[in-house]
Amino acid sequence: MIEITEVWVDSLAPNSAAIKNGHDLVKKGKFVELHQSEDQQVLFGSCAGSGKTPYMPSADFVHPDKPVMRCTCPSRQFPCKHVLGLLYAYVEGKLFTSSAVPDELVSKREKAEKREEKKAKEISEGAVAKPKKVNKSALKKKIMAQLEGLEVLEKLTHSLIRRGLGSLDTKELKVIQDHVKQMGSYYLSGAQIQLRKLYLILSSDGDAENTYTVAAEQFAIIHAFIKKGRTHLNQKLEDSELALDHESTIEEWLGHAWQLSELKEAGLVISQAELIQLSFISYDDVSRQEFVDVGYWIQMDNGEIHCTVQYRPYKAAKLMREEDSFFEVAVVPELYLYPGDMNRRVRYESFAARSVEDQDLSQIREYAAVSYADAVKKVKNQLKNPLGDPTPIMLLHVDKICTNEDDRLFITDSQGETLELQDIMEDSTVSLLRYLSEENLSDVVMLVVFGHQSQSGRLRVQPLSIVNRKEIIRLLY
Fold first, then answer.
1. First vs last Cα of the chain: how many Å apart?
2. Range of the domain at 10
3. Which InterPro entries match (predicted)?
4. Which of the pair, 21 or 111, is modelled with greater confidence?
């Protein structure tokens, strides 16, 4: 039986309401029976519901990294509140009597085991999953349509620039909106996002000078996208296999949604990885018309900072489980890496959890960059790519946090180099530092997000988390 913690159970819940409802079932004594199988791999019980017949939730840990949750209730949420309540009851130390697993569960378990045995047999016999066949004719037509869409996009941007940003009116803004819709017909979802960003910038009521500066940067991004996208698509047409680019992010910019099988085939998978989440944020991305849940994690064997990203489209947001903060170590059997540079996106299908220990904190601290000059050089190389993430994340060692005569906050390294702390994201964190004790303001490790200030040309950093010798203090979670 794996270690079950409240944090781990929380991470399974589809939303905060399910967490509350699961706890309430335990508090109100709704569980009529609580049992554990003799081999301690299955938790099951019965829970009073709205009808005469109690519901039968269960959690099968025969595969600890991929537990199977079941319930006889009609809920469309997974796992339902009855399964969550069952797990919370176990976490709270409620009495689970040893009992034989019900026949219905035994039958389902046997079927699952047979499927696993069949898969194992196929692997042992050298059976290889047939790669998904690519309809090259259809793919070529799609590429040609994308190239045509890039031409349309280029003509639009040239027209807008020739007219001058100061002369753009509601008519031109309407043209941009119309082109956002057109890009969908050309299979260019990335172009849709970037054009929508441009529209939002130009239609804002902010300071005109700042608006034009940000708009010029957005035009530069769109120009780079057109140039790199066209080069990539033309090269792909020359390739008889029409192969995907597994090195850069251009495929995602062009709208490709990576499948785990594609990442695995490209060798972008790590076995038995351990991750600790250092920060988490959810936000509304109007340009994508999606809610975005982002977790920043450190890979414990090499110190790389990765991110997990979940997109919840407006239309489907109510039906999707919102991600949340995770405060333990995620032990991942297979970690899939997306193409990219710093802070690569990662995904995993299953995980087990263990508690964060002192040695984990020591290891995290060892990975922090001690020289700000070297860190800034790495960030600047990232920012040279217009299609790269403009807000890279790094782990820095902080010799001390100090203020100047204007009461502005800075972090310093052991060589005396400084970086100014400023809020970059919507959520403010810099002001929170003033509430921390002195021991958390020196000889600590800080997870920061870098941002480039266009008008001053300077880099600034915003603190996300602080790691001292005893704990991880999250400023965003």
1. 29
2. 6-124
3. Znf_SWIM (IPR007527)
4. 21
